[in-house]
Design a protein that fits this description.
With 413 residues, this protein is mainly alpha-helical. The longest helix has 34 residues, at 98-131. 71% of the residues lie in helices and 4% in strands. It starts with a helix and ends with a helix.
Length: 413
């Protein structure tokens, strides 16, 4: 057996077993604490809401198990099963030049992958989310979103794919450095464009019209030294009952966004505390740090691909008989996540550290107890479990578990 094939199968099996074990731990831990409301939330969240959160978490985790097995079956089909090779063979006989063939293979492969994942997206939205009362998405909205996403992917993806393949063909052995620079530039451009050009294609953003709340928020922004292009309310209720708040963009194109569902739930002081948390990410330069992490990881990944692309065994071991730059990109995209599972706890830990720092900042600018009140309401309304399995949480959760986060804020009150 080809060594690449051997190690790919070993890694795939190991990552699958690990993720299944973690998911089963999560289901067992949450189910066993279904009727045991943490003492710190007594009187703040009802037993019925706690049980709903447990049931919702168990349902989502079971869904993730089925989705994981399905995704890995597709991963085997595209690689060792010959799916990519078959698609490549189809486009090679169409008479296109090398770069055009590569773009066609990449675009069609990504389209087919998305199409094969569509049933799970529909199942999650119209079955799981519907069962727990969170889905507000209509079928026509769901289909419209898919069409918009597809058009954006084509408009943005085709020029990007062509640029990358051209650089790979024309830049010599160090092509991956040039591709890395293009990728980082593209990522920053999309972050800048997203608030004003892309997000409004899916949701309606209206300026905050509550004068007293707006004055309160603008006072906090001035105090924190934050400038933005405006404070907006997003019609999140159009698709979901979940609530959230965030700021998006960078430079002079930053926006503060509140879900309409959030504004209906939280009191003004609580909204101010949530915003202070989001501003904490800005003041602690978390966005820059995450961009820096992305740059480092992508640099190392492309350097590795720069070596693998010259190894015939890399292609043969993953079901491809005709080596090419575009097939190397697709194979790396499919195989990389299998080996990257072991890095999840590191990234999750970094993210949770950032959340604690943002909470600390919010506590220094507003009242910590108001942020706690807001978080409790968000945990309740979003049916977030208060009792995740610690190991599962270490791998998957970008935010600290609810009891730890509330306990941390209690020390700042």
């Amino acid at each position: 057996m080809n060594q690449v094939t051997f190690w790919f199968l070993i890694a795939l099996a190991a990552s699958t077993v690990l993720q299944l074990w973690l998911a089963l731990r999560q289901i067992g831990h949450v189910a066993s604490h279904r009727d045991a409301l943490p003492a710190s939330f007594a009187g703040k969240i009802s037993p019925d809401a706690h049980r709903k959160a447990a049931d919702y978490t168990v349902a989502k985790t079971r869904f993730s198990i089925v989705n994981l097995l399905y995704e890995n079956a597709l991963r085997l089909f595209w690689t060792l099963g010959g799916g990519l090779a078959l698609l490549d063979g189809f486009w090679r006989v169409q008479g296109l030049d090398t770069i055009a063939t590569g773009v066609a293979v990449i675009v069609s492969a990504l389209f087919l992958m998305s199409l094969l994942e569509l049933p799970f997206s529909a199942w999650y939205t119209f079955s799981l989310e519907e069962r727990f009362g969170f889905n507000h998405t209509k079928v026509h909205t769901f289909i419209g979103d898919l069409i918009k996403q597809g058009l954006i992917a084509l408009i943005v993806g085709i020029p990007l794919a062509w640029t990358v393949l051209w650089l790979m063909a024309k830049s010599g052995d160090l092509w991956w450095i040039y591709v890395w620079a293009v990728w980082i530039g593209f990522s920053l451009l999309m972050m800048w464009l997203y608030p004003a050009l892309i997000a409004p294609l899916f949701n309606k953003f209206t300026p905050l019209d509550d004068a007293s709340l707006k004055d309160r928020i603008e006072s906090l922004l001035a105090k924190c030294g934050f400038s933005s292009r405006g404070i907006f309310v997003m019609d999140g209720s159009k698709r979901s009952g979940h609530g959230n708040a965030y700021f998006t963009g960078f430079g002079h194109n930053k926006r503060i966004v509140f879900y309409d569902t959030l504004l209906k739930t939280l009191a003004p002081a609580e909204i101010e505390a949530v915003l202070a948390h989001e501003l904490g990410h800005f003041r602690r330069k978390h966005i820059q740090k995450r961009v820096g992490t992305l740059a480092l990881v992508s640099f190392l990944a492309l350097a590795l691909l720069g070596w693998l692309i010259e190894q015939p065994a890399f292609y043969a071991g993953l079901g491809v008989s005709e080596p090419s730059t575009y097939m190397a990109l697709l194979l790396f995209m499919l195989v990389g996540p299998v080996f990257g599972v072991v890095l999840q706890p590191l990234f999750s830990r970094l993210s949770r550290h950032h959340e604690y720092q943002a909470d600390d900042y919010a506590a220094s600018q507003t009242r910590a107890d108001e942020l706690v009140h807001a978080l409790v309401k968000l945990y309740r309304d979003n049916a977030s479990t208060l009792t995740p399995d610690p190991l599962y949480s270490a791998f998957h959760d970008s935010h600290p578990p609810a009891p730890l986060r509330v306990a941390h804020l209690a020390t700042k009150a």
